[in-house]
Design brief:
52% helix
């Protein structure tokens, strides 16, 4: 007799510096495909993949809602808003750039802890681009990931997932380790499923909002951070906002890592033109234009 299948939906965020291969990992996992072309993510891209696993005599259909989040420092408001409500996280470093492993500990893990108020979700540590390094270096970096995991997780967390190694070396290019890593995270999230408190999501959203509201930086990135965090609310759609943001950044020719006053002004005009085409009210457009330009004055 066939066992019943329990369906669970899990929000998973991919965190790590730009160009570590987060989007490529997602594409390999979801479509079993790889592209050498690099497109910098602006905001967040959301994709879905279902994984079937068995645990403790129960079959589970785990739906991953994967959030690929902007990978540059200086965008905490945007990043924390996208992190809020997560059930699991994938922390990605580029094995050919050891500094990106260091940044997991210095920037991404503290951001995750701040947003979740220290209630850490199941985490998978990924060292990507295994195809670019030799085996001795791969062995050394795998140990660094294991040491990082041991420093970051509490004793009870380590005990709870002791049957698993929550770190993996992958190559999005040839697929090595990708499926295994995602499946390990699926098992950890299912193990965590009975203890998940829906109130945690509300708490995380409040923390994310407080990070946004208390941002007093007077930098170009602070202006863009506000714009990227706000824009989904202007067009009332996360997916539409991502596409429009990507298009407007491409048209401006400005890097999100080196913003200029003129470039930001051009992006504001582009975004609000598209928002009008999407049916945003004139009141919404005017209020956000005023808000963003006021923030821009502090920088420009």
């Amino acid at each position: 007799m066939r066992r019943p299948m329990e369906e669970v939906l899990k929000k998973v965020v991919l965190l790590g510096d730009s160009a570590v291969g987060k989007t490529s990992l997602m594409n390999r996992f979801i479509q079993n495909a790889f592209s050498d072309s690099y497109i910098s993510t602006v905001g967040a891209k959301v994709s879905k993949k279902v994984v079937n696993i068995s645990l403790a005599n129960t079959d589970y259909s785990v739906s991953f809602m994967l959030w690929d989040i902007i990978g540059s420092e200086g965008y905490k408001s945007t990043q924390s808003r996208h992190i809020a409500g997560l059930n699991g996280a994938i922390l990605v470093a580029d094995l050919s750039r050891p500094e990106t492993l260091k940044k997991l500990e210095e920037y991404w893990i503290p951001l995750l802890r701040d947003t979740t108020a220290g209630i850490m979700p199941p985490v998978l540590y990924v060292g990507n681009k295994l195809d670019l390094i030799e085996k001795p270096e791969a062995d050394r970096l795998l140990k660094e990931l294991a040491d990082l995991d041991a420093r970051m997780r509490s004793g009870p967390e380590i005990h709870r997932y002791k049957v698993l190694q929550p770190y993996v070396l992958t190559s999005a290019k040839n697929g090595q380790g990708v499926e295994e890593g995602f499946r390990s995270l699926a098992v950890m999230m299912v193990m965590d499923h009975p203890s998940y408190d829906p109130m945690t999501r509300q708490m995380e959203e409040m923390v994310a909002e407080s990070i946004y509201e208390t941002d007093e930086r007077k930098t170009g990135k602070a202006v863009l951070d506000m714009i990227i965090a706000d824009f989904p609310y202007v067009v009332q759609s996360s997916e539409s906002s991502r596409v429009i943001l990507q298009e407007c950044f491409a048209k401006s020719g400005m890097s999100k890592d080196s913003p200029t006053p003129n470039g930001i002004h051009e992006i504001i005009d582009c975004l609000l033109r598209n928002a009008r085409d999407k049916g945003a009210s004139e009141e919404t457009i005017a209020s956000h234009r005023e808000k963003w330009l006021e923030k821009l004055k502090q920088f420009g």
